[in-house]
Amino acid sequence: MRVCADGPGSLRDRRNRRPGALGYGRRRSWSTAKALQRARIVLLSAERLTVLEVARRVGISRPAVWRWQRRYGKEGVDGLLRDKTRPPGKPRLPAATVAELLALTC
After folding, report:
1. Which of 12, 27, 51, 77 has an alpha carbon 20 to 30 Å from 91's alpha carbon atom?
2. H or E element: which one contains 37?
């Protein structure tokens, strides 16, 4: 995947125009760290390093590198600044089922 990191609207361009713009949110330090890690993935990819080398330098898995390269390719810098929403987890067991299981163990 070819990643252009220096053109207009690129990560470097936006970072230089709006210092500190990466990672605004409720948990700023956490989201800033994540945004910087993702930016690093894109910038290292722009240097044409292998996915394995990018993963090694950033300290993440290869699928994570692929994920952020793909997201940057589709959505640009804005795709790096936020996590995708996820559906809620499994619903809790109904109280009747919990009571039945407890009755079986006693």
Report:
1. 27
2. helix 28-46
